[in-house]
Amino acid sequence: MTTDTGGVGEILEAPLVIEYPFNRTTGPVIGAFLTGLREQRVLGIRGADGRVVCPPTEYDPQTGEPLTEMVEVGTEGVVTSWSTVTTPRDGQPLPGHHTLALVRLDGADTAMLHVVDGHVATGDRVRIRWADERQGLITDIAAFEPIRGGA
Amino acid sequence: MSGNRVAVVGVGQTKYAAVRGDVSLPGLLREAAYRALADAHLTMDDIDAIVVGKAPDFFEGVMMPEGYLAEALGAVGKPLFRVHTAGSVGGSTAIVAASHIQSGVHERVLTIGWEMQSCSEAMWALSFPLPFQQQLVAGAGGYFAPFIREYMRRSGAPDDIGILVALKDRLNALKNPYAHLHEPDITYDSVKESFMLWEPIRYSETCPSSDGAIALVLAGESAAEASAASSGVPPAWIHGTSMRSEPAMASGRDQVSPQASRDCAADVFSQAGITNPRQEIDVVEMYVPFSWYEPMWLESLGFADEGVGWKMTESGATQMTGDLPVNCSGGVLSTNPIGASGMIRFGEAAMQVRGQAGDHQIDGVRRALGHAYGGAAQFFAMWVVGSDKP
Fold first, then answer.
1. What's the ipTM?
2. Looking at the complex, does the CB of residue A96 fall below 8 Å from at least one CB of chain B?
3. d(Cα B30, Cα B70) in Å, to the nearest integer?
4. Which domain holds residue A44?
5. CB nearest B128 (choices: A18, A27, A30)
6. Angstroms from B35 CA to nearest CA on chain A
7. Positive or negative: CA dihedral B73, B74, B75, B81
8. B9 and chain A in contact, CB less than 8 A
9. Does a structural domain hold residue A31?
10. How many domains does chain A have?
11. Residue B26 contacts A, CB cutoff 8 Å
12. How confident is the model at residue B126 (pLDDT cuts 50, 70, 90)?
């Protein structure tokens, strides 16, 4: 490729595309969470202070101690904060109007970031819409759906 | 060495392997960190600060992992510091950790070096095609092969010195339960007949790609003595630390024996009061990722005169039975989680001084050198540890 510099001379340009694959080893806790999603179950973990952290962490956020007590939480929950996407661009989670939201599932004390199909606001209730084919990935939760009219 | 006295009072290593699929990245570091704390008879509550190092983020694809790892490392509410110096980073990280105590700021510092190379293909991450440059698909070994060839030309060394180094280090690794490669059937002929990867470097003369972590607990004088009294294992006192670097593409630099390497060695030996390294150092853990770097560094570090380092290898002087054992642990040639490799050299040197190296222990070690290099043989980190208080 060349660029016309208006008589100053020719400046060469070339593209540099770096593509490089990475692998991840999930370990016992994140591994159990992802395996649960495949079975349409959501697992959190009990922290040192008794609160349920979901998605689970391997080590306590406050004390750093290893955590082991997995706790199944609900597949419905409440929106704790949100950002709406009215005109999605290519590559965004859903093609239509959707909302990026923090969802605290029933039985959990912390919220996870995911996508809600439609518009919601803080305090609205939502439920998981599972992917038809689940592979042990966070995208096994295809999206959350608003529960209209209260639950 | 200036500042307050510092000693290594705890060493913890993971089992090294091509793939540690049984643990997450935080779990891997945790394994090393808690073994080091147990060795020091201390708990995480006793630690004032944490200093970590690894190879470039691109090798694992986790950007600034120190933030993500803070909770797993017990670093909540404590200073957590990251060091970056390519392949020498494990050594540099330990030195930075020591400086936190030398300065009087902290009493007990935990330092960790790691790499989970199964997250990527780090060897080839070094070789992506840049515009307007010849693409060599060479990896790290391809970069160093011409400088090895130049060493062979200058020194007139026999062609098989590299084979002898590889055979020695891989046999030593059989005595180290943590080592990645355990090849009990290795022979001179099997090394010689292995695939020529980057001429003159054969497959069996090349480091593996490993997952693993090492952690050290460093302590100031009174804390070190208290820890040793509790654990029953003597401290390895730090007698000198030095780091040097030079630009990869500096015109006219000597890539066989870089100025930064020679300056770093001179500095660390001067701090330790050593005038004849061959006589005064009992054991060396040297960063040898490709076999020929043993004779090259023997000369650059001052253990041999220029051009004759290979004679030490050939005569057996660097074997465990020789007068200057090099890489009793099996070295980088047997275990290479890049960001950990330098700290493994430093930690193994400390283990020799503390008498805790098990089957690869050399009797009566009073002073040991830990050595690391990185980048295009441009970053250097070294420490001398000893049984006597400096």
1. 0.82
2. no
3. 11
4. 25-146
5. A18
6. 15
7. negative
8. no
9. yes
10. 1
11. yes
12. low
Does pLDDT of B102 surpass 60? yes
Phi, psi of A128 (to 5 degrees): -70, 135
Do B76 and A20 count as a contact with CB atoms less than 8 A apart?
no
User: Taking 70 as the threshold, does the pLDDT of residue B1 lie above it?
Assistant: no
**Sequence-ordered list of residues with C-beta below 8 angstroms from that of B345, at least 6 positions apart, any chain:** B90, B91, B285, B286, B287, B331, B332, B370, B371, B372
For residues B328 and B344, give the distance between their C-alpha atoms in angstroms, rounded to a whole number: 12
Average pLDDT, chain B: 95
pLDDT score, position A4:
63
Q: Which residues contact B209 (CB under 8 A, 6 or more apart)?
A: B18, B117, B118, B121, B122, B123, B336
Q: Which amino acid is at B79?
A: P
Cβ separation of B19 and A25 shorter than 8 Å? yes
- pLDDT 10s digits, B42-99: 999 999 999 999 988 888 888 899 988 988 888 889 999 999 988 899 999 999 999 9
Q: Mind listing the domains of chain B with CATH numbers?
A: 6-121+209-236 (3.40.47.10), 138-208+239-386 (3.40.47.10)
Closest CA to A75 of A61, A96, A54, A98: A54
* Per-residue pLDDT at B139: 76
Residue A91 lies in a domain: yes
Distance CA A94, CA A72 (A): 27
A7 min Cα distance to partner chain B (Å): 23
pLDDT number for residue B268: 98
Can you read off the two tokens belonging to residue B249? 């593409």
A20 within domain boundaries = no
For A10, the token pair is 């020719």
More confident call, B343 vs B250: B343
Rounded Cα–Cα distance for residues B231 and B292 (Å) = 39
As separate numbers, helices (DSSP H) first and strands (DSSP E) second, chain A gives 1, 10
Of A16, A25, A29, the CB nearest to B131: A16
Question: A151: pLDDT confidence band, cut at 50, 70 and 90?
Answer: very low
For chain A, positions 14-53, list CB contacts with chain B under 8 A. 14-16, 18, 20-30
**Does A134 score more than 90 pLDDT?**
yes
CB B289 within 8 A of CB B336: yes
Tokens 């010849």 map to which residue? B134
Contact B318, B252 (CB under 8 A): no
Share of chain A above pLDDT 90, in %: 79
B329 token code pair? 């642990």
More confident residue, A29 or A17: A29
Examine residue A89 and state whether it is found in any structural domain, yes or no.
yes
Residues B386, A5: Cα–Cα separation, whole Å: 64
Partner-chain contact A23 B71, CB within 8 Å: no
- CB distance A110 to A54 below 8 Å: yes
